[in-house]
Amino acid sequence: MRQRPRSRSSLVVPALLCALVALGGPPTLSEGAEGPQASAEVARLFEEASAATQRYEGGRRAAAAQKAKARRMEKLLVRERREIAVLHNDLGRIARAQYRSGGDVPLTAQMLLAEDPEELMHGQRAVWQADLALNNAVDKSRRAERKLAEGQRKAAAEWRSLQERNVRLAKLKQDIQSKLEAAQWELQGEADRSVAAGQCRGAVRLDQPEFRSTRAWLPPVETYELSAGFDSAGAHWAHRHTGQDFAVGIGTPVRAAGAGRVVSVSCGGGFGIEVVVRHPGGYYTQYAHLAAAAVDQGEKVRAGQWLGQAGTTGNSTGPHLHFEVRLTPYLGSGVDPVKWFAERGVRL
Questions:
Q1: pTM of the model
Q2: Which of 97, 39, 94 is nearest to 253 (CA)?
Q3: What tens digit of pLDDT does each residue of 274-319 get?
Q4: Which stretch of DSSP H or E encloses residue 219?
Q5: Structure confidence at residue 109 (pLDDT)
Q6: Distance CA 237, CA 287 (A)
Q7: DSSP-assigned states of every residue in 73-115
Q8: Nearest-angstrom CA–CA distance, 291 and 267
Q9: Choosing a second label site near 202 at 20 to 30 A (CA), which of 59, 158, 262, 279?
């Protein structure tokens, strides 16, 4: 029950679907593979992909900072070299002035020939002091230049090292993503066969993440793009759209929007694999087009608990979660999920 997602990220898997159909369809489950194994593999790879992405992004930011540092030090080197050139020019002018005032004539001879020997000595001392000050300044500047040059070399080497690390991380990330896509199709293939046979598998028990929140309500998926909205028109449903679609990939963990009890888990019809939860206060939430359910009918759930994994079972044109808020457990009693969440302090 979904229109085509508007975001580029949500089009990745449908595009892969088309490519796989052109090549003869998505890969099937390997002989002996079971739904629980595929579900657990997808959940594990999702975590690995997230961790790899975080490491890659952290390395990319570090490399960018190190490159900026190397560029700043290069600018300092250029400025330092200019200052040294100015000092050299000043020293050259003093040397030329000294030559013009006395040339190679010994200082003793200059004093004998000078009209005012005391003034000559005073001038000579000034020249010596200026010459010493310039020499000290040049030495200091050269030491600073060497220090800056060494820092620039280290910064550039660190940047190159980070770049090489990022290349390795990017390959690792790509490898994990490839494995994840294959596992996603295994999971979806098992789900499609279950729906086609009309035989729901039992709950796939996944390792629940540590989730602590004081919020009574939260979105049914953690990261998402909103696609088809409530009461929108489209060619994929008979009347108006009855819920809110969240564009997510196959295997994305789907969580309970709030505490409650599971009233039904089914796998037939246009919604494919679906879970319906009753909440205190009389409202019901529905989670449809799943690739797997992680709960059984009658089970009590808490807000944020995984109910299953998103997929594209039933009347679905691509991977997404179809989510409804209902006044009863049945289709046709839905209310706008966006407004309903907003009234409870949750902005989608």
A1: 0.60
A2: 39
A3: 999 999 989 999 999 999 999 999 999 999 999 999 999 998 889 9
A4: none
A5: 53
A6: 17
A7: HHHHHHHHHHHHHHHHHHHHHHHHHHHHHHTTS-HHHHHHH-S
A8: 10
A9: 279
Whether pLDDT at 114 is above 90: no
Amino acid at 193: R
pLDDT in the model for residue 241? 79
Q: Name the token pair of 313.
A: 């079972």
Q: How far is it, in rounded angstroms, from Cα 282 to Cα 307?
A: 19
The Cα-based distances of 31 to 34, 190, 205 in angstroms read 9, 12, 22
Q: What is the DSSP letter of 240?
A: B
Which residues partner with 334 through β-bridges?
326
Handedness of CA 146, 152, 153, 155 (dihedral sign): positive
Q: Which of 338, 313, 337 is nearest to 326 (CA)?
A: 337
Q: Provide Rg for the chain, Cα atoms.
A: 37
Contact assessment for residue 248 and residue 14, using Cβ atoms and an 8 Å cutoff: no
Q: In 3D, which of 216, 229, 253, 220 has the Cα closest to residue 334?
A: 229
Q: Determine the 3-state secondary structure of 275 from DSSP.
A: strand
pLDDT band at 158 (very low <50, low <70, confident <90, very high): confident
Q: How confident is the model at residue 3 (pLDDT cuts 50, 70, 90)?
A: very low
In sign, the C-alpha dihedral spanning 209, 211, 217, 218 is negative
Q: Is 148 helix (H, G, I), strand (E, B) or coil?
A: helix
Alpha-carbon separation of residue 235 from 4, 315, 332 (angstroms): 10, 12, 18
Q: What is the pLDDT of residue 208?
A: 76
More confident residue, 110 or 77: 77
CA pair distance 70, 160, nearest whole angstrom: 11
**344 and 283 in contact (C-beta within 8 Å)?**
no
How many C-beta neighbours within 10 Å does residue 343 have? 10
What CA–CA distance (Å, rounded) separates 298 from 279? 12
The answer on pLDDT for 153 being more than 60 is yes
| Angle of CA points 152, 154, 157, to nearest 5° | 110
Which pair of tokens denotes residue 238? 């008979």
C-alpha to C-alpha distance for 32 and 190, rounded to whole angstroms: 11
